[in-house]
Amino acid sequence: MIKEKLYLKAKTLEQAIYEANAHIDSFRYIAGGTDVIVNKFQGNEESSYLIDISGIDELKNTFLIGNFLSIGSLVRLDDLKKNKHLVQHFPALLEAAHSVASPMIRKTATLGGNLLCENRCSFYNQSEWWREAVGYCLKCDGDICIATGGKKNCFSKFVSDTAVVLISMNANIEVIENNISTIVPLESIYTGDGVSPRKFNKTAIIKSIQLPMHEEFKSVYKKLRQRESLEFSSLTTAVTINKSGKIKIVLGGVDPKPVVVEGATKDEKEELISQAIKKARIVDNDVYSREYRKEMIGVYLNRSFEELV
Question: Residue 1: pLDDT band by 50, 70, 90 thresholds?
Answer without folding.
Answer: very low
